[in-house]
Amino acid sequence: MTGTSPSDFAKRLDKTADDTEALLGRLLSDDILHDEIARPKRLMDAMRYSSLNGGKRLRPFLVVESAAVFGVPREAALLVGAALECIHCYSLIHDDLPAMDNSDLRRGRPTLHKQTDDATAILAGDGLLTIAFDIVTRDEIHRDANVRLLLTRALARCAGIGGMVGGQILDLAGEGRFGDREPVDVARIQQMKTGALLRYGCIAGAILGQASKAEYQALDDYGRALGEAFQIADDLLDVEGDAAALGKPSGQDAALGKTTFVTQLGIEGAKQRVRDLLARADSAVSIFGDRAAVLQAAARFVAERKS
């Protein structure tokens, strides 16, 4: 890994995961905030079940490390990362529902609707989605309200109709959920459904750091390349991965008849595409010199992951 050893990278990733876990625990506590009336126990327990005790916290890690390039205080970046993680966890809850992917297992445990019921799962997802925007607007993130506005707007656009949610419905349409199968643009679906939140993790650091246009573009390009590499690695894991290591069943894409990067490019073609994307990610952040070493290591981690 360029400039960062595997052990050092792993320590940094684990540290951010631990810090994010602790922060989410506080944000999702039973303590009632100003303008809240109550925090119902069943709802809070369900939100905590699906957002605590699991995951690599890659998205918060990208926020922290992209922000570190500009010397942004870690505490501010962690708050933005926590908001992003709430969006990610909500999306997993809803993805797992019977009307979506109908999954029984997530991170080695029963999915939330299996642990509780569909209604609780839907509302827990709604709760995580909305609290994300509470978190990302908090004054302690940045003294400049315009920075907080830009972070909030970008998060809405990456998570919403032109990003993750839009990508989800295109993915379902490609499966034939609404009638005949619609033509699938795998790259477009990836950019929206999976890539948009990963990209946000990168551009959030640029927004927090009040980056120049060139610096913002570098992190944007890096985020797009990393997002596509992540999805291709995910597609490869669905074909070649071990269900125990993944914490969820493998072979789901084939069972649903999905068109993926692997079905389009073949296994070897997909692996070559990942190598090309790694080179693109490295090149994109080279303008930061040694400050980009951890981000370059992160791209390799994404491409080489086994779970």
UniProtKB/TrEMBL annotation:
Which keywords does this chain's UniProt record carry? Isoprene biosynthesis, Magnesium, Metal-binding, Transferase
A Pfam family name for this chain?
polyprenyl_synt
List the GO molecular function terms.
metal ion binding; prenyltransferase activity
PROSITE patterns named in the record: POLYPRENYL_SYNTHASE_1, POLYPRENYL_SYNTHASE_2
Name its GO BP terms in alphabetical order. Answer: terpenoid biosynthetic process
Q: Which GO terms describe its cellular component?
A: cytoplasm
Q: Which SUPFAM superfamilies match?
A: Terpenoid synthases (SSF48576)
Is Transferase among the key words of this record? yes
Q: Which cofactor does it need?
A: Mg(2+)
Q: Which family, according to UniProt?
A: Belongs to the FPP/GGPP synthase family.
Q: What is this protein called?
A: Probable farnesyl diphosphate synthase
